[in-house]
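Quarterly update from the structural biology core.
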Amino acid sequence: MFIIGGEKEHTMASLLDTLFLTMNGETTTLRDLGGTRWLVVNVASACGATPQYAGLQTLHDQHEELTVVGFPCNQFGAQEPGTHEEICEFTTSKYQVTFPLMAKVDVNGEGRIPLYEQLCVTSDADGHSGDIRWNFEKFLIDGEGNVQRFSTRATPETLPI
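Predicted structure, tokenized:
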């Protein structure tokens, strides 16, 4: 990380080393989770897009170098009200999710976690950057920290993995 004029300026590689919490309350990073590419997704259990869990799990299973990382978030229509235990039970029983789910987070507003602070500067194909608009927005990150952003409408099956 470079310090310029008293402000922190992040290198793209620092994105891979940004700390966040697991559901067990431990700190980790994308790099620590393994893989050489990551698909970061803000997820919810009671959303119209919730069936995307199945496609996310398929991507995780079919691409050895890809790690799907789910960040439960309750900021959109209160569609992720459950506890960590309830979220894990739901995703495992309904969608057989084995990819890592992190601690429930805020992806917008004052409580936005640092990882999403960095991700939200990326524009999607429609030119949208900034705040996350809904559940299941996706960020595909390569080993150099380059980011592609995809809206909720982009299903896992349509992503350029």
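Residues 2-146 form a domain with the Glutaredoxin fold (CATH 3.40.30.10).
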